[in-house]
Amino acid sequence: MKNISILFISFFLFISCDKTPENRQSLETLITNKDEKGIRAKKASVLKSYDSISNVLATIENALSTFSSDKNLPLVSTFIVKENNFKHYVTLQGDVATKQNIIIFPEYAGTLQRVYVTEGQRVVKGQLLAIIDDGGLRQQVAQLETQVQLAKTTFERQKRLWKEKIGSEIQFLQTKTNYQAQTSALNHLKKRLSKTRVTAPFSGIIDDVISEQGQVVAPGQSMLFRIVNLSNMYVKADVPESYLNSIKKGTTANVQFLSIGKEVFGKVRQVSNVINPNNRTFRIEIAVPNKDKKIKPNLIANLEILDYQNDNALLVPTDVIQENAKGEKFVFIVKPIKENEATVVKTIITTGISYNNLIEITNGLNTNTTIVKEGAITLRDGLTVKIID
Q1: Second label for 148, Cα 20 to 30 Å away, from 195, 263, 282, 337?
Q2: Is the pTM of this model over 0.85?
């Protein structure tokens, strides 16, 4: 305390001496007389005195700080770095589709004679859906069947005779050719006749009956039914090509259908082998279960696809990381001094990928290291801080 008193007395004595009439008069005389040499000498004296005052003030501040109970230290909160299971997801939007969602067109032109199904009806593969008027084709088949039977009988008789060397070879060949030609014509007519019967190509639900009974239909022009199978559903989405190495067949995905309030888990079942040159993406398909049949084709789906996982990742909040002019990322490590006080050390780090406001630290930190969480923006290396956790 004695030393502090001496410093204060010295300071005030210096101020008092500088304000004496002799000193003030001397300076005024030098200026009046335009004594350049004397003025320069006076300047040097004043600057020397200013340095002395600064040194005295610095000594006083340091002395006061040793027994001041009110330190204005920066306030910070801290975060302890721990190993955690880290998962990163790619967020995308996709559309629901099914391989079995088609419009059935007629294969035969004519009048829709009979419709056997209604909208919403479940059908099985091969079930008869409708019949188209054959326009007399059935009668032609019946007539040709009689001719084929006759040609067959003639051919078989000629065949027996030819084995017994009765008749000529040309007669045998003619009856054989006639029989084969009649059989081929009959098969062709039967195939045409079968096209008048419209059947289900797979098991599913008749979503829409488009053509009415009695309407004239034609192949490639008239739509008859829409049939859908909701059992084999999937979501299709376009993924940026930067994820080509991380998203593969079998990758798990969380699929959310916001419009129906449903969430399911699926797996990538197909990855396209072609990159779309227009948007630099590749197509994926994710199979989704649909036991309750609530998922419909063209429904919008929000996807979270797991593309990275580390069971022992060092994670910190993204907002604790700062960056310098060189582009280096850094944090402040806390070195405790005493209770609620610590020194901060600026530490350069290397980061990985981030997700949900957390970022992986790949180099520069160890587990159980304490770093500054809040209040880091105003800190500098080696500064003493007060911890408010």
Answers
A1: 195
A2: no
Looking at per-residue pLDDT, the higher value among 178 and 71 belongs to 178
C-alpha distances (whole Å) from 114 to each of 120, 130, 174 are 18, 5, 43
* Fold of the 75-83+313-387 domain: 2.40.420
**Per-residue pLDDT, 128:** 96
Report domain extents, the chain: 2-65, 75-83+313-387, 134-195
Hey, is 232 helix, strand or coil? coil
Q: Measured between alpha carbons, how far is 232 from 297 in angstroms, rounded to an integer?
A: 11
Helices then strands, each counted (H, E), the chain = 5, 21
Question: Which has more pLDDT, 291 or 106?
Answer: 106
How far apart, in Å, are the Cα atoms of 217 and each of 57, 119, 181?
105, 19, 31
Flag whether pLDDT at 63 surpasses 70: no
- Report, as an integer, the average pLDDT of 54-71: 48
- Residues forming a β-bridge with 271: 284
Q: Which residues pair with 348 in a beta bridge?
A: 330
Tell me the backbone φ, ψ of residue 289, rounded to 5 degrees. Answer: -70, 150
3-class state of residue 180 by DSSP: helix
Nearest of 289, 250, 242 to residue 96 by alpha carbon: 289
- Distance of alpha carbon 347 from alpha carbon 370, whole angstroms: 12
